[in-house]
Amino acid sequence: MSLDILFAAESLLPARGGAERFALELLDALARRGHRVRALWLSGGAGAASAVRELPAGVDGRELPAPPRDAARYWEAIGARRAVLSAAVRGEPPPDVAITQLHGTPAALEARAPFVVLLPSYESLCKVAHGPGATIVAGRVELVCPPPRDCLACPLAEVGAHAARRAQDEALARADSLVACSAAVAAAARGWTGRDALVAEPVVAAPEARARHRGHVVVGAGAWGAHKGAALVASIVRALDGRAVTVTAAGLDGEAAAQLGRLGADLRDEPIAGVLDGAGACVVPSLWPEPFSRVAFEAQACGVPVVAPRNGGLAEHVAPGGLLAPDAQPQDYADAVRALDDPSAWAQASEAARGAAGAVLARAPLERAVSAVEAAGA
Question: Does pTM top 0.90 for this prediction?
Fold first, then answer.
């Protein structure tokens, strides 16, 4: 049965992060299965040279002019942007099923149809509660603000935050299905909403890149931010003195980029396959319970050993030999990389990395997400 499917979210193109990239892959797969697929998203997406800028063949869509994000008035700006998306969804012909994610989740309530919420991160729950300081390991969730929660009294709440929280919670409660990017995010969703979520990792295939013993070290993130460990990057590069280091550039401000340049790091803003080609190791120094980390997966899929903290989704798919304590310091990352200088140790780590990525792909995550959408619209 062919379905009319509407994707409506705050961001889609340009697709820089893993959430947007997987959404495009999901829409592409649905269109290839003969469904009619429409997409709505808001202007103001974060661009990068490595970002995908076109919809897949067979997917119709349009970008909606919207007020820009404003860090000084964060929730007020999010509310204004979400109002634009909700109004656009109300103006669309009702679909058979809708898909949404992140801050755009409440807009799905306007679709007048069953809907699926993708959970590629914690924004649909609460990024503050699941941010730096939270621990999510093996299904155990220890929040920054442990129960009982009082969001209205949260010192980090801003004007508009309370209404946004209520809208998000209503949408999560009414969704026909929740699709989480990892067991860690599924556990977080269960703890926050009391609902179970299907786990479908946000990956499709391995990029084409070759790992190389004692090749350059990639210090990577989809887009750097405080929670991604941006403050650790320069110290990690210093601790790796004498090694060729490549740093993914998306999200770095001018001052940070200049400092890394002075330290001799090679800053690259290009598709991940080019960044990983010839790499000997990949460091993912996240400071929060990383929901999944597509960078870590793609490195391992190419046979590049990953060094990362044992927290969140990273603990699920990074080969155990590359996992460090959640509070690992720059020297810990450098020591773990240098331990791979031994050819035998590196060969074993590379094989383990490929095996870990292969185990994720063997679970057919894209097909699981497709099935969730089709079941909601049936």
Answer: yes
